C-alpha cells in the first residue's frame, strides 16, 4: 500500500468518523431539546435548540415545532429589548421553517401566525396599523386556503375597519374585505360541520364513540365555537358602518358599471339582505340583476324572498324549491332549508316550516338551530293544541325535548338550549298537576299541526 493510498484511507475514515460524530451530536441535541420541552423546561431546552438550529437547520422538523414553544415561553417571560429580540427571532424562525420544510409549512397558516404575533406585540415592536394590515393581507393573498385561524381572521378584518375609520380605506374596500372574511368563516364552518356530522349521527343512532372519535368530536366542536364567536365579532366590528344609509348611496352610484358583475351583485345583495335594507327599490333591482347575470341557487333564493315579502307565498315557494334543486352541496342545501324554514315560521306557516327544518337537520345533523326553531313553534302553539288545560301545557314537554336535542348535537348552543328547555319544562304540568290528573305514564295525543304524542312522566 502506497503512502498516497494510506493518506486517502485515513482521510476517508476521519470523514466518516466526523460525520458519525456530527449525527450523534445532532441526535443528542434533538433528544435533549424534545425531552426538556415535554417537561416544560423551556429555558433548559433553549441551548440545544439554538445549537441544532444553527448547526443543521434541515435535520428535523422538531427543531421548529419545539422551537416555537421555546421562543413563545421566552417572549412571555421577558420584557423590553430582550422580548423584542425573541419576538423577531420567532418571526425569523417561521421563515427558516418555510425555507427548510416548505411542504410542511403552509404559507397562509404560518404567515397568519407571524402577523398575529406582531399584532399581539405591536406596541413593543412599534408597528403601525398599515404595516400590520399589509402583513395579514399578504399572508392571506399568498395562501387563503390555509389562512384559517379564527383569531387571525378577526384581527385581519379589525385592522381593515381601523383603517376605514382613519379615512385610509374606502367603504367599498371595507365591504369587499368583509365579504372575503365572512365567506372564509362560512367555508370553515362548513368544513368542520361536515367533519363533525358522522360522529353526531353515530351518537344519535345510539352507538358510543371511541376515545379517538371523542377527541376528534371535541376538536371540531371547539373550532365551530371559535368560528361562531369570530362571526359575531366581525359583524359587531362592522356595525353601523354598513347601515342602509351607507349602503344604498354606494350601490346606487356603482350599479350601472357593475350590473353584469355577478360577484359584485352577490356581495351587494347579501349585504343589503343581512342589513335589512330590503324595503328599498334598489334591493329589488340588485336581486333581478343578480338573477339575470348568474342564475343560481342563491339568486333563486333571493327572488323567493322578494316574492314572499310581497305576500306571493305560492310563487315564492316555487322559487325556494328551484333554489334547493339547483343547490348540489348538501351542507349549503341544509343551510337554505333552515333559512326557508325561518321565513315560513315567521309567517306562521309552522307545518311547512317544520318540514324544512327537518330537512335541514337531515342534511346537516350537527346544526342544532332547526331543533330550537321547532321547539319555539311548539311552545307558541301550546294554547291552540289540546282539548284541556293539562293537555295544552303538555305540549311544552315536546318543546323541551326538541330544545334538548339542539344542545346535544350542537356545542355552540349548549347553554341556550339548556336554558330554553328548562323554561319550557317549567311551563309543563308539574308533579302535583300529574298527581291531581291521575294520568302518570299515559300517552297524550297532540292535535293541530303538531300531531304526534307525548308521554306523561311517571311520578
Features:
459 residues, mainly alpha, two-stranded antiparallel ribbon
Topology diagram in text:
Layout: H1 3-38, H2 42-55, H3 62-77, H4 80-100, H5 107-120, H6 122-125, H7 129-142, H8 150-165, H9 171-204, H10 211-238, H11 244-258, H12 262-274, H13 281-293, H14 297-309, H15 313-326, H16 330-346, H17 350-363, H18 369-380, H19 389-409, H20 414-427, H21 431-437, E1 443-445, E2 453-455
Antiparallel strand pairs: 1-2
Helix pairs in contact: 1-2, 1-3, 2-3, 3-4, 4-5, 5-7, 5-8, 7-8, 8-9, 8-10, 9-10, 11-12, 12-13, 13-14, 14-15, 16-17, 16-18, 17-18, 18-19, 19-20
Give the helix tally: 21
Task: Indicate the overall shape.
Answer: globular
- What is the percentage of strand-forming residues? under 5%
Please report the distance between the alpha carbons of the first and last residues: 103 Å
Low-confidence stretches: 9-19
Oligomer kind:
single chain
Instruction: Output the strand order for the largest sheet.
Output: 1-2
What is the count of β-strands? Answer: 2
What is the H/E string?
HHHHHHHHHHHHHHHHHHHHHEE
Q: Please, what is the average pLDDT?
A: 91
Q: What characterizes the major β-sheet?
A: 2 strands, antiparallel
| SS content category | mainly alpha
Amino acid at each position: 500500500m502506497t503512502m498516497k493510498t494510506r493518506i486517502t484511507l485515513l482521510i476517508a475514515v476521519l470523514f466518516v468518523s466526523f460525520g458519525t460524530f456530527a449525527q450523534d451530536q445532532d441526535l443528542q441535541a434533538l433528544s435533549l431539546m424534545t425531552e426538556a420541552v415535554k417537561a416544560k423546561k423551556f429555558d433548559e431546552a433553549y441551548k440545544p435548540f439554538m445549537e441544532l438550529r444553527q448547526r443543521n437547520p434541515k435535520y428535523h422538523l422538531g427543531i421548529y415545532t419545539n422551537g416555537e414553544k421555546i421562543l413563545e415561553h421566552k417572549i412571555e417571560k421577558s420584557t423590553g429589548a430582550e422580548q423584542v429580540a425573541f419576538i423577531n427571532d420567532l418571526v425569523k424562525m417561521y421563515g427558516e421553517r418555510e425555507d427548510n420544510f416548505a411542504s410542511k409549512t403552509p404559507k397562509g397558516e404560518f404567515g397568519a401566525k407571524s402577523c398575529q404575533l406582531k399584532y399581539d406585540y405591536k406596541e413593543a415592536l412599534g408597528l403601525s396599523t398599515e404595516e400590520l394590515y399589509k402583513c395579514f393581507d399578504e399572508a392571506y393573498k399568498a395562501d387563503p386556503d390555509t389562512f384559517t385561524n379564527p383569531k387571525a381572521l378577526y384581527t385581519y378584518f379589525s385592522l381593515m375597519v381601523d383603517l376605514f375609520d382613519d379615512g385610509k380605506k374606502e367603504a367599498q374596500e371595507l365591504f369587499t374585505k368583509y365579504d372575503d372574511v365572512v365567506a372564509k368563516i362560512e367555508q370553515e364552518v362548513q368544513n368542520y360541520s361536515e367533519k363533525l356530522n358522522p360522529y353526531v349521527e353515530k351518537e344519535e343512532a345510539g352507538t358510543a364513540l371511541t376515545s379517538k372519535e371523542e377527541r376528534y368530536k371535541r376538536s371540531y366542536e371547539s373550532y365551530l365555537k371559535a368560528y361562531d364567536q369570530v362571526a359575531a365579532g366581525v359583524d359587531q366590528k362592522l356595525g353601523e358602518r354598513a347601515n342602509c344609509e351607507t349602503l344604498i348611496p354606494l350601490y346606487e352610484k356603482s350599479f350601472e358599471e357593475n350590473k353584469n358583475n355577478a360577484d359584485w351583485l352577490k356581495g351587494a345583495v347579501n349585504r343589503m339582505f343581512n342589513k335589512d335594507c330590503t324595503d328599498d327599490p334598489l334591493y329589488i333591482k340588485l336581486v333581478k340583476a343578480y338573477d339575470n347575470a348568474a342564475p343560481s341557487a342563491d339568486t333563486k333564493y333571493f327572488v323567493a324572498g322578494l316574492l314572499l315579502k310581497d305576500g306571493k307565498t305560492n310563487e315564492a315557494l316555487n322559487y325556494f324549491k328551484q333554489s334547493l334543486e339547483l343547490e348540489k352541496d348538501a351542507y349549503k342545501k341544509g343551510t337554505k332549508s333552515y333559512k326557508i324554514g325561518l321565513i315560513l315560521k315567521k309567517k306562521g306557516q309552522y307545518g311547512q316550516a317544520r318540514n324544512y327544518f327537518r330537512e335541514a337537520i337531515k342534511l346537516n345533523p350537527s346544526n342544532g338551530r332547526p331543533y330550537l326553531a321547532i321547539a319555539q313553534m311548539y311552545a307558541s302553539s301550546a294554547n291552540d293544541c289540546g282539548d284541556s288545560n293539562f293537555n295544552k301545557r303538555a305540549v311544552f314537554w315536546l318543546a323541551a325535548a326538541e330544545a334538548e336535542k339542539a344542545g346535544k348535537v350542537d356545542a355552540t348552543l349548549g347553554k341556550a338550549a339548556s336554558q330554553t328547555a328548562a323554561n319550557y319544562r317549567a311551563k309543563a304540568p308539574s308533579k302535583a298537576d300529574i298527581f291531581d290528573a291521575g294520568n302518570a305514564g299515559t300517552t297524550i295525543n297532540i292535535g293541530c299541526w303538531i300531531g304526534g304524542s307525548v308521554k306523561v312522566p311517571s311520578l
